[in-house]
């Protein structure tokens, strides 16, 4: 494969692009010819305050390097205003990176309503509102590339981050459905879980580890997923330290927990639990139909006197 991946003529909106990872994404797009909307509310890490300085600085940086950029200072809670800046200045929107984020970490019992609501409003609702405002324009243009930013905290959980984990897993669900609804309009939606040095990770990771996790290592994956030549959609990728890997759900082959003409009992569940949870025999459903199909197959296999089911032949059975 040859040729530089360029974004000439494309309009990209990067939310939370005044600092950290978002700044890197915006600079990388700008260097490769995209017109960039640098959105940033400019508040603190907990979501308090606002300022135009950080977005302005990144716009200046992009322009200084010969690129095109404009600032937007609205919170992603006003998604239509963020997208309007792209429409007013560049007449369209091709790419949206839902990167803006804050943290309000507390152990679960101590999470206040505000800690919960603000995190959902910025991460999940903000991603929804910005993307919804862009969606109709992408549909009309039959082109769109959308990135949701999740976190290992969402995918695996993390002590003190119940509010953040819930929101970050929420954006994965949002992307799963957008990738299906966007398919016929050439709108792709992928999700990235980055790990990198920023003000967010400064106090929670040791310095030597942080210095290995440069934000510059994440941007290339974002750019690839947003390029017109990339056909991926609905993927979840963990990215950091110069490494990228794809994540997906695995499901055990499972166990039948009823017999013909009889209901299921808690005792039957108990007696089959080990088999139900045994990942030595598994499949990787590619979609909702492949996954739910197993329940119907299980029912009819019992009715027909068999006590086993075969995984869907189109489901991958190797990782
Ligand atoms: P950061 O704090 O350096 O950057 C976040 C930016 O979003 C800030 O410039 C902030 O002003 C802006 N922002 C916050 N609320 C906003 C709002 N309502 N509207 C518009 N802008 C807003 O943090 P970092 O690390 O660069 O994080 C970027 C994204 O990556 C976040 O979504 C974060 O949750 C996610 N992430 C980062 C990880 C890391 O290792 N740094 C790990 C996993 C996820």
UniProtKB/TrEMBL annotation:
Keywords: Fatty acid metabolism, Lipid metabolism, Lyase, Oxidoreductase, Peroxisome
GO molecular function: 3-hydroxyacyl-CoA dehydratase activity; oxidoreductase activity
GO CC annotations, alphabetized: peroxisome
Organism: Paralvinella palmiformis
Family (UniProt): Belongs to the short-chain dehydrogenases/reductases (SDR) family.
Presence of the UniProt keyword ATP-binding in the record: no
GO terms classed as biological process: fatty acid metabolic process
The organism's place on the tree of life at top rank: Eukaryota
Subcellular location: Peroxisome
Protein name: Peroxisomal multifunctional enzyme type 2
Location of the Ketoreductase domain: 10-184
Pathway: Lipid metabolism; fatty acid beta-oxidation
